[in-house]
Amino acid sequence: MEADRALKRAETLLGPDREKQDPARLPAKLREILAPAEENLGKLLAEFPDFSGHPDVTPKVERLEAARKELEALEGAASASKGAETAARAAREAESGEWLKKLRPFVASKSRMDDAPYLDPEKEMISYAGFDISAEELARRHRIHGEAAAALEEYRSAGVKEPLELLAETAKEIERRLGEFSASLEGLGRIALDEAKSQLERGMAFTAENLPKAERGEDFNILSRDVLLGIRNSLDQAAVFLPGDDPGLAGARSDYARLEKDGALLREKRVEKIRMLPEKFGGPEGEAIRQAVIAAIGAEHPGADILRMNIVSPAWKEEWRFQEGADRVLRLTATRQVTVQAAVKKSDGVFLLTLGAYSPKNPDWTWGPVKGYVMFSDKMLEENVNE
Question: If you classify domain 156-271 with CATH, what class do you get?
Answer without folding.
Answer: mainly alpha
